[in-house]
Design goal:
The protein is of the alpha+beta class and 364 residues long. It is 46% helix and 20% strand. The strands form 2 sheets. Strands 3-2-1-6-5-4 form a 6-stranded antiparallel β-sheet. A 5-stranded mixed β-sheet has the order 7-8-9-11-10, with helices on one face. Strand 8 and strand 9 form a beta hairpin. Bound molecules: adenosine-5'-triphosphate and magnesium ion. Magnesium ion binds next to helix 7. The site of adenosine-5'-triphosphate has 16 residues, from helix 7 and helix 8.
């Protein structure tokens, strides 16, 4: 049996499906092709492997020169191999993860047992690939979490300094003046005109100190969320956008408090970006339930647009990165779609509660 395999089964290729691009990428090969890993690609439906990935069923090709599906790729030296069996790598839920190809030097007819055995090997491979992907995703999520924690600590420090400054320069100064005026009022108790003057000054200072305190607190957290809930808060946020036609449509959605804060902050940054960069005439904000029971927030403008991918690399701006981090932390996906001249669409989608653990981040 071993001899039979050594003579007839000459080389194996593992093609892994890159779902985002709809391409099969050669990710593993036995000698002499090991070096080709990552360098050969096929489209879905292209070649025998592409056909197998598309149809999620094995293909037995005793003589590939007689098979219309076969595509010659010089790097894979098809001239050295005659027959081929190709099985899909089926992961959880019979999902196609890739394709395993076994090429033999001579024309050969593969029996059902051969194909069934290869299919089983393929499914083992599929599970391994899926686990590796999950691990990778978890590692990215952990890194995001660490970055977010670091930024949160920085932001907290800045916020503390801002508050300390406002209390020191504003509220404390007013309270000191207030104390002097009250002292003076006490000292002038027998002079009604002076007393009235000092008390009026004290009154003015009290309301100024109150204003300062309100300003210091404002921005610490969106208290409007507690007062109004997410929908009306988004409306009030959108209407604070100056000089723009704003259209808000927010369905009432039941969400955890931390998710509401995340969506509110994302909308806030998206709207700030519209004001700062878009030169838009119109912006729409939509909050709705998805058909699958999740929630979708969309902020869309008709402004100048930009190339999201082109902004990467050494850019110090934090807005888009922060939006993505906030979305990922609550298990949502965030997509920014934009191109020069087409306006910008920021979409956050949160899966229904039961499926949130499976949610992933899509690339732009
Ligand atoms: N709605 C938009 N319309 C046009 N360009 C946009 C829009 N949103 C973002 N951009 C572009 O993307 C860049 C990055 O946005 P980001 O929010 O990350 O940074 P920023 O707004 O420049 O700075 P900040 O860190 O204060 O948010 C912007 O500088 C701008 O060029
Ligand atoms: Mg910004």
């Amino acid at each position: 049996m071993a001899e039979h395999v050594a003579v007839l089964v000459t080389v194996c290729f593992v093609h892994v499906l890159d779902e985002a691009r709809g391409r099969l990428v050669l990710m593993g090969a036995t000698p002499p092709f090991t070096e080709l890993s990552g360098t050969v690609e096929l489209g879905l439906g292209e070649g025998v492997a592409g056909w197998v990935a598309l149809h999620a069923e094995p293909a037995v090709v005793p003589d590939k020169w007689q098979d219309d599906r076969y595509v010659y790729i010089p790097a894979l030296r098809g001239e050295d191999y005659e027959s081929l069996v190709s099985v899909p790598l089926l992961g959880r839920g019979q999902h196609v993860v890739g394709v395993l190809n076994v090429h033999a030097r001579r024309p050969r007819r593969y029996g059902d047992l051969d194909v069934a055995l290869l299919a089983q090997v393929g499914n083992l491979l599929a599970r391994t690939i899926e686990n590796a992907r999950l691990y990778e995703r978890l590692a990215v999520r952990e890194q995001t979490l660490e970055q977010f924690a670091a930024r949160t600590i920085d932001a907290q420090e800045m916020e503390r300094r801002r508050l300390a400054g406002e209390i020191h320069d504003g509220i404390s100064q007013r309270l000191i003046s207030l104390w002097y005026h009250l002292q003076a009022a006490g000292a002038n108790a027998s002079d009604p005109a002076a007393l009235a003057r000092e008390l009026a000054a004290a009154e003015d200072l009290t309301s100024a100190a109150l204003d300062e305190a309100r300003r210091a607190i404002a921005g610490l957290r969106p208290s409007v969320l507690d007062d109004l809930g997410l929908g009306p808060s988004l409306e009030s946020l959108a209407h604070s956008v100056a000089g723009l036609d704003v259209d808000v449509d927010a369905e009432p959605c039941r969400l955890a408090a931390h998710v509401e804060v995340a969506l509110y902050r994302i909308a806030q940054e998206a709207l700030q970006n519209v004001m700062k960069h878009a030169a838009a005439r119109r912006v729409t904000v939509r909050l709705s339930e998805t058909a699958a029971g999740g929630v979708r927030l969309v902020v869309e403008d008709d402004g100048v647009g930009f190339r999201p991918a082109g902004r990467r690399g050494g850019d110090p701006s934090y807005g888009l990165v922060g939006m993505r981090e906030r979305a990922e932390l609550v298990g949502a996906t965030l997509q920014v779609t934009s191109a020069a001249g087409t306006g910008t669409r920021v979409e956050v989608e949160l899966a229904a509660p039961s499926s949130r653990q499976r949610s992933t981040t899509r690339a732009e």
